Amino acid sequence: MALDTPVKPMTDIKVFIPELVYFEPDALEYPMGARILKWAEQQGLPIRMTTSHNRITNLPGEGELEKYRIAKRTLVVGIRKTLEFDQSKPSAEYAIPISTGCMAHCHYCYLQTTLGAKPYVRVYVNIDDIIDRARKYIAEREPEITRFEAACTSDPVGLEHITGSLAHLIEFMADQEHGRLRFVTKFNNVDSLLGLRHNGHTRIRFSVNADYVIRNFEPGTSSFADRIAAAGKVARAGYPLGFIVAPIIWHEGWEEGYAELMRKLKAEVPPEAEPDLTFELIQHRFTKTAKRVIESRYPKTKLEMDEAKRKYKWGRYGQGKYVYPNEQANALREHLTELIFENFPKASIDYFT
Question: Which of 61, 62, 49, 4 is nearest to 23 (CA)?
């Protein structure tokens, strides 16, 4: 293995290729781990070993900003030891953990704080253990349908060319009468999923937004045009399709910005997808901790986080966040709702939060 090879400069590429790969030793005992090792060697990537991801403390880089950017391009291949799944309301009953961390640089992302000082990307190779646990959760809730969200802590589509984890989950869930899979993405790398047997049990959703939001706050993601082209592909492959408009941001010209978004979606979404098309609407929110971290990592961001302009909303576990005041939130919700049903009268809105 090419241990301690100098890290390559960062590049802007559409398919994620890490600049540095760590392996936990036990991960190499699993077929996926051995396959990823072979892939990393073929790519000529620097490879290092670590007894645990928690022991990774010597990432390269000068200064905190450079260390952060390199960490976002670092892949850690390990085992998911905790097989108790977190809840994932309102999207699903459970979050199914196949990866953690994301290579994108969305300024507003909640992973800024949940991943703390370790924003590297982790993938878990014990996919059979994870699937076995999902099977037990399904059995516990029968005859109710149990939904699993695969994108709570990552964007697994951006990692699928490395892991193949989504393919495993999709084909497993195809055979589950009472199980369903869901995930959302800002990436367009869906071709490997199109020919899979899914039985309509996996809903693929794409995160979309007004041009202002994508242009200013979502570096390192696929373009809007590429996302919508990918959405058309998965719809034509028979997958249930959905869109998450998140975060909805109040900005100058927001009414026309979101109207233009819906016009673009209408022009590209295949008509056969509309009867089962879903929308999820999430307004922008932030915590005090998130604001501090975001401003340190993206010091030139245009993201508005003025606490005086927001309403404080208590959340789970006694933690609160800043959301838009009721008048603005209602205006956003009503405008988006009208636009959605004007363009997609057969679609449904799962929630606005």
Answer: 49
45: in domain: no
CATH assignment at residue 172: 3.80.30.30
Distance CA 226, CA 204 (A): 15
Q: Is 3 exposed, middle or buried (0-12, 13-18, 19+ CB in 10 A)?
A: exposed
Q: Residue 114 sits in which domain range? A: 80-274
- What stretches of the chain adopt beta strand conformation (E)? 20-23, 47-49, 74-78, 87-88, 92-95, 99-100, 121-124, 146-149, 179-185, 202-208, 241-248, 278-283, 311-314, 320-323, 348-352
pLDDT-based confidence at 68, cuts 50/70/90? Answer: confident
**Is the residue at 320 inside a domain?**
no
Provide the 10 A C-beta neighbour count for residue 222. Answer: 24
A 10 A CB-CB count for 304 gives 12
Residue 242, in any domain of the structure:
yes
pLDDT above 70 (res 3): no
> Cα 59 to the chain's mean position, in Å?
24
**Claim: this prediction has a pTM higher than 0.90:** yes
Residue 266 resides in a domain: yes
pLDDT digits (tens, 9 = 90+) for 23-55: 999 999 999 999 999 999 999 999 999 876 665
Domain count, the chain: 1
